[in-house]
Amino acid sequence: MFGRFIAWLGVGRARFIFGLLAITGLLSLMLNAIQPPEPWIPTVQTALAALFLVGAAAAVITRFDRQERRQILILIVPALGALLLGLFVPQWFTALAVVAAGWIAIALISGRAAVRREYQRAIKHMRKSEYDEAIAIISDLIKAEPDQADHRRFRAELYRLAGNLRKARADYEKVIALTPNSGVGYNGLAEIYLQEGNFERAFEYGLKAHALEPNHWVAAYNLGMIANRMGKWDESIAYLKRALSAKIPDSRHRLMAYLWLACAYVFTDDQTSAREALAALQGEKRGLREWQIILSSEQATLLRRVLGEDVALAEQLAQSDVGAALEQVRNKRS
User: Fold this and answer.
1) What is the CA radius of gyration of the chain?
2) Which 3 state secondary structure label does DSSP give 111?
3) Which of 105, 166, 209, 317 could bridge to 183 as Cys pair (CB 3.0-4.6 Å)?
4) Domain with residues 213-334, CATH architecture
5) Maximum CA pair distance of the chain?
6) 46-93 confidence digits (pLDDT tens)
7) CA nearest to 100, candidates 114, 81, 119
8) How far apart are CA 264 and CA 234, in angstroms?
């Protein structure tokens, strides 16, 4: 969890926070070494602690896009104010810390409750393949909160399920406009062009997503898949290894990564690495079961079109020993 937070925060902001902590902490320790203790020392130490809190909060707030900062400020500023007051009035610190935590909890619950209800209603319609009704609910939510990129992203996914790629593309482009420092919109466009069979454009947008989020697995995974489709075997290997190094969290995506790696290794005549990838694929039995359940769903038409053959091949390879599986991939090559 901590590693993901650092990856999300970014190297520059993380270094700023740790550097600020080191400087303020060191200065505070140096003040403790003054003998005899001066009466002004606790006040300066309190000010140093306050400086760290303000600086760390600023680093986190500026990580969000401009459209999201208002909500984050509403969440953080009152809590930060309570903590700062507690620093300067130590006897109140515990009570004010509880107030700060309570404010954050209440703000999170009250801010998300209504949105959560709308999403729940939309998901119920989606599960019944009632895409128009689900889209209408999220569209009303977008009218109420036009600057929330997550609403646009979710509606884009609903449009994709409904087969309306033109409107899905428009929503992903709006996601990019609202969150230019995020790779989410670019990943969405990459997936749309992949669905359409336009691998060159898919790869182009995948590269943009990866440039924005180089430490996240999704963009590297998509690039590895697209490069595999294009026969760019060395690039496919490089991106899939990068995705796996970024710790793909779920078994079904690791399964696909190992499948495409095995194919790429066979096509580059690296039989040893192909065997290793196939052995790893056969260890992802849970992922195979997940794909079988997902693809059997009525809502999985899009996924079956894009990944159905890959999952079928992975199922065949998982049921063979590594040597036989390697031969199957070789036959696919020929």
Assistant:
1) 25
2) helix
3) 209
4) Alpha Horseshoe (1.25)
5) 84
6) 888 888 888 888 887 777 655 556 667 777 777 777 777 777 777 776
7) 81
8) 7
Q: DSSP readout, 154-183?
A: HHHHHHHHHT-HHHHHHHHHHHHHH-TT-S
Tell me: the pLDDT tens digits for 221-247?
999 999 999 999 999 999 999 999 999
Report yes or no on whether pTM surpasses 0.85: no
Alpha-carbon dihedral 253, 257, 258, 261, rounded to 10 degrees:
170
pLDDT digits (tens, 9 = 90+) for 290-329: 999 888 887 778 888 889 999 999 998 888 877 777 777 7
Q: Of 298, 251, 15, nearest to 130 (Cα)?
A: 298
With tokens 């393949």, the residue in question is 129
The span from the CA of 231 to the CA of 303, in Å, is 21
Domains of the chain, by residue range, sit at 2-109, 213-334
Cα(78)–Cα(93) distance, integer angstroms: 14
- Report the distance separating Cα 277 and Cα 325, nearest Å: 11
Tokens found for residue 289: 């079961």
Structure tokens that stand for 211 in this block: 């440039």
Q: Give the side-chain half-sphere CA count within 13 A for 32.
A: 7
Q: How many helices (H) and strands (E) does the chain have?
A: 17, 0
Amino acid at 220: A
Question: Given 3-state DSSP classes, what are the helix, strand and coil percentages for the chain, each rounded to the nearest 5?
Answer: 85, 0, 15
Residues 6+ apart with CB under 8 A from 46: 87, 88
Strands (E) located in the chain: none
